[in-house]
Design a protein that fits this description.
Elements: E1 6-10, H1 14-25, H2 30-33, E2 36-40, H3 43-52, E3 57-61, E4 63-64, E5 67-68, H4 71-74, H5 78-82, E6 86-91, H6 96-105, E7 109-112, H7 117-129
Parallel strand pairs: 1-2, 1-3, 3-6, 6-7
Antiparallel strand pairs: 4-5
Length: about 130
């Protein structure tokens, strides 16, 4: 039996974390539906998780209480860089320069808030399928 997908959700808002959990656990894609969801509320928590736990994908809020979520990408441990997870930025920002900044920082994709379940699951599934 293969390991379930490990999905790190870096999001400071509890309602948004609950929404992501609901979307993922109800996804049509069995790989997503069976995922182990790991949560971090801050950059510091995300860094601690990544130091000890390999993940397959990261949903990364761009605006966190202790800084830009994009800063996490510069601070990925070498073990994470070697087996790079799919990184999807989630943001309420829809300006082209905000999207460009997330892609330039190393995100594979961007999903805007408020979440649309189909967009979130389609984005994750399509990027995971290419890995």
């Amino acid at each position: 039996m293969t390991q379930p997908l490990r999905l790190l959700v870096v999001e400071d808002n509890e309602l948004n974390r609950a929404l992501v959990r609901a979307i993922i656990t109800r996804a049509g894609d069995r790989v997503l539906r069976d995922a182990q969801i790991i949560e971090a509320h801050t950059l510091a928590q995300a860094q601690a998780v990544l130091t000890d736990t390999p993940v397959d994908a990261i949903l990364l809020d761009v605006h966190l209480p202790d800084g830009s979520g994009l800063a996490l990408l510069d601070q990925l441990p070498e073990t994470v860089r070697a087996r790079r997870p799919v990184i999807v930025a989630v943001t309420g920002g829809v300006m082209p320069e905000q999207r460009a900044a997330a892609l330039a920082a190393g995100c594979d994709a961007i999903v805007t808030k408020p979440y649309v379940a189909a967009d979130l699951t389609r984005t994750l599934s399509s990027h995971l399928a290419t890995r």
